[in-house]
Write a structure and sequence with these properties.
With 142 residues, this protein is mainly alpha-helical. Helices cover 69% and strands 3% of the residues. The chain has 4 helices and 2 strands. The protein has helices at 11-37, 42-61, 67-92, 113-137; strands spanning 106-107, 111-112. Helix 1 (11-37) packs across helix 2 (42-61), helix 2 packs antiparallel against helix 3 and helix 3 crosses helix 4. It is globular and about 45 Å long.
Length: 142
């Protein structure tokens, strides 16, 4: 049985870690979306950063879980964030950042099953990246 030792972090270290993860996730997601569909909206960098932070926390706290379960939890968190962001940005503010109305198994045009599956698949390399960041950037060898 592996013993897990967590190092205590001060507030500055925690704030730096959160900021690094938000920026990394925001830049990565914004870039992926530009490559995927040719454009993005600044709000997607914010949402991507928050989702990456959540996926990082899932992978950090859930080290004892099998990897597919962590990826599933990540996909659920991302889909939930996408739904709430879509309700605010697209339905309430009318920005038209995305519309899944023509996709199968969609809800209010804001989320759909194919993209939830894509988020699950996205959580596979994201989980690996979280591990690399935790070990190489934050020097947590666990």
């Amino acid at each position: 049985m592996e013993m897990v030792v967590y190092k205590s972090k001060n507030r500055l270290q925690t704030a730096a870690e959160v900021l690094f993860l938000l920026l990394t996730g925001g830049v990565l997601y914004y870039g992926i979306e530009v490559l995927w569909r040719g454009w993005s909206h600044w709000s997607m960098a914010v949402c991507g950063g928050l989702c990456f932070l959540a996926v990082y926390r899932i992978n950090d706290a859930g080290r004892h879980m099998v990897f597919p379960l962590r990826a599933l939890l990540g996909a659920i968190v991302i889909t939930t964030a996408e739904f709430f962001a879509g309700c605010i940005l697209n339905l309430w503010l009318g920005l038209g950042v995305w519309d899944y109305s023509d996709m199968p198994m969609q809800l209010f045009g804001q989320i759909c099953l194919p993209y939830s599956v894509l988020w699950f698949l996205f959580c596979i390399p994201a989980g690996w990246l979280c591990r690399v960041i935790r070990r190489q950037v934050f020097l947590d060898g666990v």
